[in-house]
C-alpha cells in the first residue's frame, strides 16, 4: 500500500542500547505517562498535541503509555515505534493524515444496507434460534487491515512493544477494553515485572498486546463489532472504565499528560440546548458516548487533584505509600462536535444518508457524528487545533515532561545515548 510505504520511511534502523534498570534510573513514582482518551475520529486531536510536543522535545522518553478506545491506536503506535519520539509523532501524523472513512469501515451502500437489514431481522425475529448475529452497524475490516500494516504487526502481535521493553525505552503499555460477558473493564498490560491488580468491576491482565486488543478497545459500542479475545468478546474500553487514570498510576506514573477530546465548556455554554424538540437518536447517542469517553476523565482528574491536596498535607511517614502525582490535561479549545457540521456534506453518500436518518442534522453539536467522521479534511483540522492548543500551553507542558530543564530525554545510568 502506498500510504504504508511512506510511513515506513520514517523508521530508523535498530540501535544498540543497554536496557536501563528502571528502579535505579529515576526516583520511584516519577515516571512520565501519556493517557490517550477515546472519542473515535476525535483522537486525531491527540496527534496534533503529540506533534507539537515532539517539535519541542524530539527525544522525549515516555516510559508509560496507556490508551482507551480510539486513543488505544495512538498509544499502541507510540509504544511500538522503534524511532525517536519525534519520528513516532511524525509517523502517527501521516497515519491519520492518510486515513479515510473507507479505511475505517465499509461505506458502500450494499454493506450498510446489509448490516441494517440484519439489525431489522434481529428485532422482528422474536429471539428465534438461527437468526444471524448482530455484530455492529458498521464493518471495520478495513481498519484492521490498515492498522496491521501501519503498526507493523507480525501475526497480529505488536512486536515493537517487546523490542522497546528489551531496549529499556518503555516500561509498560496498557490498553483498556470492556468484557461484554462479565461487564468488567479489563486493562491489558505489557511490561517488565507487571503486577496484575483488581478493583471492583475492573482488573488488569498481563499479556502480549496485539491488533485484537487495539481493535477491541476502539470498538464503539453497537456501532463497531466486538472482538473475540480468548473465550470472551470485548468492546470499547471506555464503557465501564470509571478511573481512566488508574492504569498509569498502577504502572508507577508520577507525572501524567492526559489528552481529552472535549472542550471545557463554560456554564452558559453547558446550559445552552443544542437541539429543539424531541431529541433524535443521534443526540441521545452523542450524550451516551460522551459519558463513556469524556465525563469520567474529568471526574478522575478532579479526584486526583483532591487526593494530591490531602497527601501533600501529610508528613511522608504517614502517607502509607501514597504519593502526589502531577497531572496536566490538554483539551480542545473549540467544540469538535460543532466543527463536524462543517464537513458533514463530504461524507460518503451511503453513510451520510444513514447518519442523517439518525438525526445528525437536527442538532447543532452532533457529537455522535464527530466520532465517526473520518474525513481527511476534518481530521486535518483536528490535528491543527491540537497543535495550536498544545503550543498555547508549551510552558506548562515543559514543566511536566522536562522538570529538570533538559530536553525531556532521561538516560539511565550506564545506558548509551541515542
What would you say this structure looks like, in words?
There is one protein chain. By secondary structure, the chain is an alpha/beta fold. Helix content is 42%, strand content 13%. It is built from 17 helices and ten strands. It has helices at residues 2-8, 22-25, 44-56, 71-80, 85-97, 109-124, 141-150, 159-167, 211-217, 246-250, 267-271, 281-312, 336-340, 349-357, 367-372, 376-392, 394-401, and strands spanning 31-36, 64-68, 172-179, 185-191, 198-199, 202-206, 227-229, 232-236, 253-259, 326-330. Strands 1, 2, 3, 4, 5, 6, 7, 8, 9 and 10 form a ten-stranded mixed β-sheet that branches. Strand 3 and strand 4 form a beta hairpin. Helix 1 (2-8) packs antiparallel against helix 5 and helix 3 crosses helix 16. The radius of gyration is 21 Å and the shape is globular. The relative contact order is 0.18. Residues 1-28 and 410-418 have low confidence and may be disordered.
Amino acid at each position: 500500500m502506498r500510504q504504508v510505504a511512506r510511513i515506513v520511511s520514517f523508521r530508523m534502523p535498530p540501535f544498540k542500547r543497554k536496557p536501563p534498570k528502571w528502579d535505579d534510573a529515576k526516583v520511584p513514582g516519577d515516571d512520565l505517562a501519556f493517557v490517550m482518551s477515546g472519542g473515535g475520529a476525535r483522537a486525531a486531536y491527540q496527534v496534533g498535541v503529540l506533534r507539537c510536543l515532539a517539535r519541542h522535545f524530539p527525544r522525549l522518553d515516555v516510559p508509560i503509555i496507556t490508551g482507551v478506545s480510539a486513543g488505544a491506536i495512538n498509544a499502541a503506535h507510540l509504544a511500538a515505534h522503534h524511532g525517536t519520539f519525534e519520528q513516532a509523532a511524525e509517523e502517527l501524523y501521516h497515519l491519520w493524515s492518510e486515513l479515510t472513512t473507507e479505511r475505517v469501515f465499509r461505506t458502500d451502500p450494499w454493506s450498510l444496507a446489509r448490516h441494517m437489514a440484519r439489525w431489522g431481522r434481529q428485532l422482528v425475529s422474536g429471539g428465534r434460534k438461527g437468526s444471524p448475529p448482530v455484530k455492529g452497524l458498521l464493518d471495520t475490516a478495513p481498519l484492521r487491515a490498515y492498522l496491521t500494516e501501519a503498526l507493523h504487526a507480525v501475526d497480529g502481535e505488536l512486536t515493537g512493544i517487546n523490542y522497546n521493553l528489551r531496549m529499556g525505552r518503555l516500561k509498560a503499555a496498557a490498553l483498556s477494553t470492556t468484557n461484554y460477558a462479565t461487564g468488567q473493564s479489563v486493562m491489558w498490560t505489557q511490561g517488565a515485572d507487571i503486577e496484575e491488580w483488581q478493583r471492583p468491576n475492573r482488573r488488569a491482565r498481563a499479556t502480549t498486546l496485539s491488533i485484537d486488543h487495539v481493535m477491541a478497545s476502539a470498538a464503539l459500542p453497537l456501532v463497531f463489532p466486538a472482538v473475540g479475545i480468548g473465550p470472551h468478546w470485548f468492546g470499547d474500553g471506555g464503557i465501564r472504565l470509571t478511573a481512566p487514570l488508574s492504569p498509569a498510576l498502577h504502572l508507577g506514573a508520577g507525572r501524567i499528560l492526559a489528552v481529552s477530546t472535549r472542550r471545557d465548556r463554560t456554564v452558559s455554554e453547558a446550559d445552552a440546548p443544542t437541539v429543539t424538540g424531541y431529541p433524535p437518536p443521534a443526540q441521545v447517542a452523542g450524550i451516551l458516548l460522551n459519558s463513556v469517553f469524556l465525563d469520567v476523565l474529568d471526574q478522575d482528574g478532579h479526584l486526583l487533584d483532591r487526593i494530591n491536596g490531602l497527601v501533600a498535607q501529610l508528613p511522608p511517614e504517614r502517607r502509607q505509600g501514597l504519593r502526589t502525582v502531577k497531572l496536566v490535561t490538554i483539551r480542545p479549545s473549540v467544540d469538535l462536535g460543532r466543527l463536524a457540521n462543517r464537513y458533514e456534506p463530504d461524507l460518503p453518500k451511503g453513510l451520510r444518508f444513514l447518519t442523517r436518518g439518525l438525526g445528525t442534522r437536527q442538532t447543532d453539536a452532533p457529537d455522535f457524528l464527530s466520532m465517526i467522521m473520518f474525513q481527511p479534511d476534518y481530521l486535518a483540522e483536528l490535528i491543527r487545533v491540537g497543535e495550536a492548543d498544545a503550543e498555547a500551553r508549551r510552558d506548562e507542558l515543559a514543566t511536566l515532561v522536562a522538570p529538570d530543564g533538559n530536553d525531556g530525554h532521561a538516560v539511565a545510568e550506564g545506558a548509551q545515548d541515542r
